[in-house]
Specification:
Blueprint: H1 3-6, E1 11-17, E2 24-30, H2 36-47, H3 52-56, H4 59-72, E3 78-82, H5 88-97, E4 107-111, H6 115-127, E5 134-137, E6 154-159, H7 171-181, E7 183-190, E8 193-202, H8 204-208, H9 212-217, E9 234-236, E10 241-243, E11 253-254, E12 259-265, E13 274-281, E14 286-288, E15 290-298, E16 306-308, E17 338-342, E18 348-350, E19 355-362, E20 367-373, E21 376-378, H10 380-383, E22 389-391, H11 393-399, H12 402-416, E23 423-426, H13 431-440, E24 445-448, H14 454-464, E25 475-477, E26 495-499, H15 517-524, E27 529-536, E28 539-548, H16 550-556, E29 561-562, E30 565-566, E31 588-591, E32 600-601, E33 606-612, E34 620-627, E35 632-644, E36 652-654, E37 664-675, E38 681-689, E39 694-700
Parallel strand pairs: 3-4, 3-6, 4-5, 6-7, 9-22, 23-24, 23-26, 24-25, 26-27
Antiparallel strand pairs: 1-2, 8-11, 8-12, 8-15, 10-17, 13-19, 14-18, 15-16, 15-17, 19-20, 20-21, 28-32, 28-33, 28-35, 29-30, 31-37, 34-38, 35-36, 35-37, 38-39
Helix pairs in contact: 4-5, 12-13
């Protein structure tokens, strides 16, 4: 009997966001039954956006875990795999124990609480004839009971529940519960230990990503998102931010040598909290803008197998200047990055050879830092936590960008003053546009929907209204989608202006066209728009560029055997590219192109589809032939939306790769295309489904 039929049916609920409304919808994922085909399609949509495929394509990671497992398991025993994924580590453990004479005593328990992944694991086990050697549990590890689920406590724990910060996936509480309830005394573990490291850096890019107040000081447009005395009214969340720091290496100046922070021993029960204090010698004069951190994993007890997430400059000469180190592209992966901890304000001034007092603390899910130099204190533990409005680093940088602000200011100034007492609706979460309208027109009445930031947005506006010279008497925040204006009877006159950036809070990591929900909102409000209503942006243009993306391609390519175990069954579900069945293409996924390792544009930027917001929402499509302008290997296309602010098309906000504050959509080809001649071509087409808000992208070979 297979493992699939041996276990009872399991049901789980997965939260999905409707791209046109922003509403949350619960999707039922159930093991077995008549809904299997539908649920398989649902699992594909859910798992393609995860890091599983990238992780399985990390060949060094896979080798390191297998080597450590083979060194650690010296006889048949009970092995517990927590967060088993596709079951790779479980199969490694089972195959290792199969070599011993007493192999019948081997027992592998694989715990995977995410049901879509657990279902995929069963298929992988079946393909590798491992379904009888690995017992699968669709449960959280803290729901497992020895004597009920597990026959006995496990003697070996293999697990890989690590994120870029190390602790964010619940590593500490998971290990604590396992040591208390699921493991024998003095068990063996893979990995054995993890050590975190840090480095003090100065960077203009990182500064822009968190210090809006200092950026606004250099602007003179009359808009004050962070007025004097209210410097921290907008900020970022107090947390570590995972980024590919090697990609910004030319904009980083090192202000210290790397230093060890914490050591976490997995071979014993971890503590829930820890603190450390040390003095770090500054390697140069400058302003510490951030602490960049990473970790090194020791997988075996002897200390012969390691895995590191360190930035590549740690292997560069000791000259303090990252720009002299040209990063390579080997071993690029997206599932583990470095982490950035921002220092509040304009940073911490340091002098060469002076000591910086560095304090670090961790709890069950996060690590935080505190710096002090001489009598100056830069305490992130308090400053970042008191913001009225917490935004992503990229959104903070957008709001401090001179060109972005001037585009909206010029567009709004050109149209707003022609109306005596206009009614304006801000249809997204833009506090900037709300302030801009209220500052430019003292007679304007503004209704801001703020469906994501809600009451926090209203509190923020009340705090900065006086500094921007407007009264909250003319501003109303409804805290939900603009279409609710009908049900709440808030409209007493026709709407003169309907505006949006568009920006929807919490949607920053999504595909760029998910901001087309602005078009949906405009359509629902059609009956209350005046005949000459101004809609801004008035148009969206889906742009495309052919790209060479070798690192991203390697991380997303189809799997065959992973350390000897067949994983070809996962390719469709995990959204792989390359070597797929005919007519099957991988999904379009969101990435910061500039962080994708080695990248190069191979064509001009071309328009693919236009979305006319002056009309109600409707289906639209585009199909073009792209001529390559450079020789190379084309791995796919980058796609994004340019927002046209005025009818003359003179004011455009681009979200393309040239700006590093937005993610682009990436459509990888089924097979890389060698561009050997300047007159080579590729084809791409797109269809926008106005009922779902999704855009389907496909490539073709032009005749």
């Amino acid at each position: 009997m297979s493992a699939t039929t041996a276990c009872p049916k399991t049901r789980a609920f997965q939260l999905r966001v409707n791209p046109l409304t922003g509403d949350s919808e619960w999707i039922v994922v159930e093991e077995g039954g008549d809904r299997e085909e539908l649920e398989e399609k649902t699992s594909e949509n859910l798992l393609a956006t995860t890091s599983y495929l990238d992780m399985l394509n990390d060949s060094y990671r896979n080798w390191a875990f297998r080597a450590a497992i083979e060194k650690t398991i010296k006889k048949p025993c009970h092995v517990l795999d927590i967060g088993a994924g596709t079951g790779l580590l479980s199969m490694m453990a089972a195959s290792t124990m199969a070599k011993f004479e007493e192999a019948s005593e081997a027992n592998v328990s694989a715990c995977e609480s995410y049901l879509p992944m657990g279902k995929l694991m069963r298929r992988v086990l079946w393909e590798n004839q491992m379904e009888k050697k690995v017992k699968v549990f669709h449960k959280r590890s803290d729901e497992l009971l020895v004597g009920v689920d597990l026959q006995s406590p496990a003697e070996v724990l293999v697990s890989e529940i690590l994120d870029s910060e190390l602790l964010g996936e619940g590593l500490i509480p998971t290990l604590q519960q396992a040591y208390d309830m699921l493991l024998t005394k003095n068990p063996q573990t893979v990995p054995y230990r993890a050590t975190t490291y840090g480095q003090l850096v100065e960077s203009p890019l990182l500064w822009k990503l968190h210090d809006l107040f200092s950026n606004e000081i250099n602007l003179s447009d009359g808009i004050h998102l962070t007025p004097a005395g209210l410097e921290r009214v907008i900020g970022i969340k107090k947390q570590q931010y995972a980024m590919h720091c090697t990609a910004m290496s030319r904009e980083i100046r090192l202000l210290s040598e790397p230093f060890k922070i914490f050591e976490f021993d997995f071979w014993k029960k971890p503590e829930s909290h820890g603190e450390i204090e040390m003095s770090i010698k500054a390697s140069g004069d400058g302003n510490v803008i951030a602490v960049i951190s990473w970790w090194v994993l020791q997988l075996d007890e002897e200390g012969s197998i390691f895995y590191s997430t360190a930035p590549r400059w740690t292997n560069c000469p000791d000259n303090g200047m990252v720009e002299n180190c040209i990063p390579g592209n080997e071993n690029w992966c997206d599932h583990w990055k470095q982490c950035v901890w921002f220092i509040s304000g304009a940073g911490l001034p340091v002098s060469k050879d002076k000591l910086v007092l560095f304090k670090a603390a961790y709890d069950e899910i996060k690590i935080s830092y505190h710096l002090k130099c001489d009598d100056q204190t830069c305490c992130n533990n308090f400053n970042f936590g008191n913001c009225l409005l917490e935004l992503s680093p990229e959104r903070v940088a957008v709001y401090g960008d001179k060109d972005w602000r001037s585009g909206f200011i010029n567009a709004m100034r050109n149209t707003l003053n022609v109306r005596s007492a206009p009614l304006c609706i801000v249809a997204d979460d833009s506090v900037f546009l709300t302030i801009l309208i209220s500052s430019l027109s003292k007679n304007a009445n503004t209704i801001s929907s703020f469906p994501g930031i809600q009451e926090k947005g209203a509190q923020y506006l009340r705090a900065i209204a006086d500094s921007n010279g407007f009264s909250m008497d003319r501003v109303k925040v409804i805290g939900k989608r603009a279409s609710y204006l009908f049900t709440d009877n808030l409209i007493q006159q026709k709407v003169d202006f309907l505006v949006g950036e568009p920006f929807y809070y919490g949607n920053e990591g999504a595909l760029p066209w998910q901001n087309l929900r602005f078009w949906k909102e405009r359509t629902l409000l059609d009956s209350i728009l005046s005949e000459d209503a101004v809609i801004m942006p008035c148009k969206g243009i889906l742009k495309v560029c052919a790209m060479s993306l070798p690192d991203l391609w390697r991380s997303r390519c189809s799997l065959k055997k992973v350390e000897g175990f067949d994983h070809s069954v996962v390719n469709k579900t995990l959204g792989a590219c390359g070597d797929l069945p005919p007519m099957l293409e991988g999904p379009c996924l969101p990435y910061y192109i500039w962080q994708c390792g080695e990248v190069e544009e191979l064509s001009e930027i071309l328009p693919l589809v236009e979305f006319n917001f002056l009309e109600p929402i409707h289906a639209c499509s585009g199909k073009i032939k792209i001529e390559f302008s450079k020789l190379g290997i084309c791995h796919g296309f980058a796609l994004w939306i340019d927002w046209v602010l005025d009818n003359k098309k003179s004011l455009v906000v681009s979200t393309g790769p040239i700006s590093r504050y937005w993610k682009q959509g990436v459509k990888l080809l089924s097979k890389p295309l060698a561009v050997n001649a300047a007159d080579s071509f590729a084809g791409i087409e797109a269809f926008f489904d106005h009922s779902s808000g999704e855009i389907s992208i496909s490539s073709f070979s032009p005749s």
